[in-house]
Amino acid sequence: MKLYLSLGCVALLSVGIAPSVAAEAAKEDLTEFERSIAPAPIEIHRESDELPQQQPAIATRLQPELPIQVKSLIKSQKLETKQTAADDSRQPKPELTQNISNSDDRSTSIPNPPPVAAALSIPTTSIHKVGEIEQPSTSLEGLLPRQQPSFTFSSGMQISQSVVQVTGVRLNSTPAGLEVILETAEGQVLQANTRAEGKTLIAEIANAQLALPGGGEFNAENPFEGINSVAVTAVDAVSIRIIITGQENLPTAGAVRSDSGLVLSVSTKQIQITVTAGQQTPYRAPIASTATRTDTPTRDIPQSIQVVPQEVIEDQQVTRLDEALRNVSGVTVGGDSTGRGGSFGLRGFDNAPILRDGFRRYGLFETFPEVANLDRVEVLKGPASILYGEIQPGGLINLVSKQPLSEPFYEAELQLGNQSFIRPRFDISGPLTSDRSLLYRLNGLYRTSENFVDYDQDNQRFFIGPTLAWKISDRADLTVSLEYTDDKRAADDGLPVVGNRVVEVPRDRVAGEPDDRVDAQYFNIGYNFEYRFSDNWKLRNAFRYSSYNFDFNVVALPIFFDEETAEVNRFFASQDGQDKNYALQTNIVGEFATGSVEHTLIFGADISYNDERLVAVGDFVTPQTLNIFNPVYRKVLKPDEDALPDFGGNDVETSRYGFYVQDQISIFDNLKLLAGLRYDTAEQKNRVIPGTSNPDASETTQNYDDFSPRAGIVYQPIPEVSLYASYSRSFNPGSATTAGGGLIEPETGSGYEVGVKAELLDRRLGATVAYFDIKKQNVAVTDPNNSLFSIASGEQQSRGVELDISGQILPGWNMIAAYAYTDAEVTADTDRELVGNRLFNVPKHSGSLWTTYEIQSGELQGLGFGLGFNFVGERQGDLANSFQADSYFLPNAAVFYQRDNWRAAINIKNLFNVNYIESVTGSRASGNKPGEPLTVIASFTVQL
What pLDDT is recorded for position 871? Predict the structure, then answer.
């Protein structure tokens, strides 16, 4: 007879623990050009012999009292337009060099501005009706998205609904003058106002964030004949300013849409204003802050970092974090800890930490983060203790929240699906004050669905997440955010193993009792404060408090499984836990130069305090048997929780202090270095709560510290290609106990990585290929002299190759794809039979693909289709490699239609209803989870 002890139940009953705004409105009585945006330029010219004769001109007289004084146009606010494709293939002229000043001052102004120029007097005798204007034959209709154009004389020019990150500025010389090209990745809301001050043209762009490589601002002196200077500066966190100063005349400008951003055409010879919609590059996120705690382009980071942007979350109708992470190479799903929280592995190592806006919540269980208020998901690969302290060497997951918008935004969505899935959601944002210095955003949802495993308890969730952003001054900003989640779900402990496979029973089979459930509440509140001392230096301070409480009802906990009789031995038990986290982060970011070498320096400190209390009750003397092939439930009534014996528990308090410094060094434009060092120290107090597991109360104290270095190099032979290499270390305190009664030494990790990053198809498509070699040492292994305790002498190694691709192939055709080859094995252990075995739940081969196409023109414009798959190879089920989980291939599909301000979609996941094992946890007795069956979700979304 073979009996197996559930390792999963140790997490439930163990007494150990692992420490684990907006733009300012132009109020002057000056001429400003404002209108709602259309996808093609609307050109307003002064009559000139230089214009083609076949193109009628629109002559205007600009007066202070109206944005554009054209009486014949005021009566009709709708204009017919054609799209004009900007030539983004033009490279900058060598003489037009980019001078990035080491400045992050948000209160940039024009020194000694000249007096306001008199209003231009332009004849209005030959004004043609807009419908009579013959547009030039330079449009590429059908290749660019078409929208219903509109022309309004409102207070601004609205383009879409989120903050755009301007990631680059280029200057190109043209026959008509000069092009200022603003490179963007995510253009959702823009509001532009233009005004003149003497010989200076000023363009204010709202809902835009300046995020140039290495930070700072853009300045170019004498870039073109007739123009003294061009500057692109940050006004505040959500708006930027373009300042163009002429030598003798006032420059004029027009904004033209391109796939890479916004092109501002500047001329000193004629009045010409052309504005069209800024275009995002879908599925492409070239900026990520997780890797460096600065807004650094991913191509300049010597480490693999992947981003799942908002468009992917929307197109795939992602409702859980694991669905989003399937788009990233090297990520494995690790189960849900009997309903207490999800876990994930990276590059072969489990328990990757999940951060929220750069803050980690320490504790045994990671909760189930809500995705409704996520802007994007960033995954940093490899050891990353330099900025985040205690961590597994595989990497980390950072969830980036949505932020308040300076323009009113109202969105509501209803999702319905099989298994009685209902998920209404709303997302609203906008200014609270007339000067837009106080912004808000509010996300909320309710979700309910049946469990595909045959439990009585439905999965239910309520979530609310408000955020306030206050622009205190031109130099200071404060953001306050809150999240609250209330969960009710089944307490599912998975299935046992027979032979070398997870038991073959229907996937809805319950190994416990159908009424097993767990309730959980998660609360998170904090602030982010930023103060800019000068153009080059700023202080950032942030605080988070979070609490996580869970409570099981009395559950039938499966602990042993007899393979010969197919009987699961279950015991009535219950557990509740309270986890409180306090965290404070402070750092200073400075930009300076030593000769021709530019630096972005960050140094700071992290302080955190964590108190986690787990208490359990249970009758572990009287087993309740269940035949897994022929189950009979409710043979015995469950006892009241108060009637069960106290099993005991732990109350663990941990204080952590971390100090770090990092320097991003730009030796040349194409050669960059990254170096940093962190020191961590912590004290952990473990108080034993007496019970049947340990009748004596006791308290132990453990202190540990460690240094974590980091170094990397990036070389860019051409701007579109980055070659990089890096080395980094990590550490993670152990939770196992030695024979002497203390905790084992912290685990340490070290990793090497080399790779290539490329920006293809005019930078619309990004790709990363990486090779990594990571070792984890001081792994807890069985003490050869006392099998009840552990020693820190084990070693595990993971090596492999990863490929990630995301972006836009053609207008309307987007994709995100990933592939990973991972060779993860035990390289040292006191049990020699384990050496050479593969780590459990880690496939050698895994990959995913998701692609969508949306029709761009014609009667079916707005209709789109999506198709993709997820593939996971065979995995070992435990370190002994005694059983395996088969590979699986899941096709997914979608159809959607969007028009004006609404969108309807239907997504089908696991299209062929494949029966598969999603995760294994190293135990033969329980914890092995089947994956979801075919799932259909229909949604309707409207924006007001």
Answer: 98
